[in-house]
Design brief:
It is a single chain. The protein is mainly alpha-helical. α2 runs antiparallel to α3. The chain is 52% helix and 0% strand. The chain has 3 helices and no strands. The N and C termini lie close together (6 Å). The chain has one domain: Arc Repressor Mutant, subunit A, CATH 1.10.10.
Length: 81
């Protein structure tokens, strides 16, 4: 699978958020959204939900919701490029 390239450059606010988190947004955001959801991640970073959604779009980070029946499981695999 091809690696996604960021369109354009990061905004000043994005760079400040990376400094606060001490790592790239491309790595931090998926983990935070999975852990505390979109609203929680936005609050932790100190931006609006709309801003966070824009960043996810700009960075090519996809959000998918999955509904599981009782007893079902989901497995996430990283594809090495």
């Amino acid at each position: 699978m091809q690696e996604r390239r960021m369109q354009g450059s990061k905004t000043k606010k994005m760079v400040l958020a990376e400094r606060k988190l001490r790592r790239p947004l491309e790595r931090a955001l998926p983990e935070m959204v999975n852990e505390v959801g979109l609203t929680g991640a936005a609050k932790r970073i100190g931006v609006s939900k709309a801003t966070l959604s824009y960043w996810l779009l700009k960075l090519g980070i996809e959000i998918r919701r999955v509904a599981l029946a009782p007893g079902e499981e989901i497995e996430i695999r990283r594809m090495s490029g």
